[in-house]
Write a structure and sequence with these properties.
Length: 115
């Protein structure tokens, strides 16, 4: 009985639709995990050319931390979904993650496509 429920849970997680964004990126592949409520989370998108977007608004890397700080000040329970193209250099993603950590955001999901 537990095995069947576990299989159903995994199937549900894999087939659950991901948040649709207007910024097109190729997501890396990873095993599915439990995610935050994606309808309420702010989406950070990083395109292959390194362009960064907060929801649909473009933002420069040097202004990213300030933008997140402003949004955290208006919503103390801010949740973020990081939606980075798989070809984006790790250094860019690491800088974003460092900024998110410094601001004190506690809910962060990294969006991937199921394997």
């Amino acid at each position: 009985m537990v095995d069947v429920m576990l299989v159903l849970l995994i199937v549900f997680i894999i087939t659950a639709p991901l948040l649709t964004n207007s910024v097109k990126v190729n997501l890396p592949k990873a095993a599915p995990t439990q995610s935050t409520d994606q309808n309420k989370a702010l989406v950070i998108s990083v395109k292959p050319d390194g362009a960064i977007f907060l929801d649909k608004d473009p933002v420069k890397l040097e202004n990213f931390e300030q933008e997140i700080t402003q949004r955290k000040n208006t919503n103390s329970k801010l949740a973020l979904n990081l939606n980075a193209d798989e070809t984006v250099p790790y250094g860019t993603v690491a800088k974003l993650l460092t900024s998110i950590e410094r601001v004190g955001v506690e809910k962060l999901s990294v969006i991937t496509e199921p394997k």
